[in-house]
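Reopening this ticket.

The earlier resolution said the output was attached, but the attachment link was broken on my side. Pasting everything inline this time so it's all in one place.
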Amino acid sequence: MDRRFILAIVLMMVVLVVPSLVLKRPPRAPARPTVTAVSPPAAPPTLDAPAGTRPTRLTAESTDGVADDTVQVVSSLYRYAFSTRGGRMVGAEMTTYRSMRKDEPGQSAQILDPNSDFMALALLIGRDTLPLKNLVFHPSTKDLQVGKDGAQLSWQAPLDSLSGISLTYRFVPDNYRIAVSGRLTGVGPAGATLLIGMGPGLRNTEADSTEFARELGVVTRDTRSQLVNFSRMKPGELKSLSGPFQWVAVKAKYFVAAVISPDTGGVGLGRFGGVQAMATDRVHRTPETADVWTSLTVGSDGGFDFGLYVGPMEYPRLRAIGHEFDDNNPYGWAWLRPVIRPVAVGARWLLVWLHEKVGLAYGLGLVVFGVLIRLVLWPLNQKAMRASMAMQAIQPVLKDIQDRHQKDPQRLQQEMFKVYKENSVNPFSGCWPVLLPWPILIALFFVFQNSIELRGQAFLWIPDLSRPDPLYIIPVLMAVSMFGVTKIGQLGLPPNPQTKMMLYFMPIMMLVLFLRFASGLNLYYAVQNLASIPQQWLVAKERMRRAASATPPPAPLRNPKR
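Inline output:
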């Protein structure tokens, strides 16, 4: 029964995980970083326009002959760049994270393209759309250093149709959060709608461009989170999402750029009204870029405010924002998340704590973590192994009962439970200790897939614990150690064709399944196997001692006389 149980768990892993990792799309050609395959619309989408209306254009200040300028905002964590043309954010360099791309060795991760439309603005007034992308903003400074007290950047821009627009960015020290406030003068009592650009997505900073493209998308949150992957859209396809939303984000695997509502009261004012995303990439079979816009209502006083987060998906930072913002980086599939997320968060915390507080490299931290888990589960495993020995001792009796009552399932069940009771054997006692490590293993799968802290962390010959072992040494060690544990566990048992098949079949199947998994996950599993060998050896020796001193097994039951 235990063998069937383990096999069932492994097959579930195969069904759940393999389609997303093994059946990958073929590698795609790198995108041209500065050329847009499809020109974005001349005007932003009218997210809140009445049905059946066609907005007309208002005019913004002419920019003919005005050169673009860039405002640099620098802190210990980042280097943000804003264009004076439209006030767009055109650079977000993460100075504490390096790019993993082969063509950018040693460089910091730059997550925004120079042609980015993130924070490009437009206004919807009645049925009229006023694009501000080419409007010249006048900044309060060209270079800004964010110190321990934070910093502030102000923008002013005149408008032909209105009196003007002002923006203020307040930068928080030691954080990637930005508080944005603004005012439109001359809006009138009807108010207006501010359209905020968020396209075309984040720039590739990873070695595996296929995996990076698969993770790109726009995420929204109302009462639940919703992800629209760019790769699942057709070129030119338009996706419309109805708000209100607490936040809207464009994300990659490890980084995110988001607008966040300041409203925490649970009602609409101050929230984002809707999202439109149109796939603009015709270079690749599955799009990597999209023209993304969201909307925010501006009151009659012309004032508005919201927050920005442009940075890494570090779980504590995302969690601290509130609004369930950590759903940008979910651990586990939606239906398993209530079980997997607490384990994943705890495992991630322990690994980071061992690294930052104890000073262990993440690889050594994984070794310690694997041994600790094995020690914690030692009593349960000991109980399971002894229960397995008890089950093996009564196998001849159970086999005889199965042969005699195979045509009477009800009688068969009664006789088997009678034997279990007489010998004080619980047939399920060996299952739970086997099941308990699996949530940890599955949780670590997501920790290594999603946690930016483990990105680029080297160990011995492995350059990155979050990626497969380039030499395949760790997966092979995991399979060999699994073979060794199983072999030791079979010492003293009578020959059994099924047991012999499992001895060879399970390690080979696990090797094939785990070959392209994160090397850190394979390292943890190999350590688990190696750490269980002493216990398995002790139990096997105990079984052999009992077998040598035991009386012959009870004679099979005979058919009662009728």
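Reporter confirms the inline version is readable. Residues 19-43, 48-62, 264-269 have pLDDT under 50 and may be disordered. The first strand starts at residue 56 and ends at 57.
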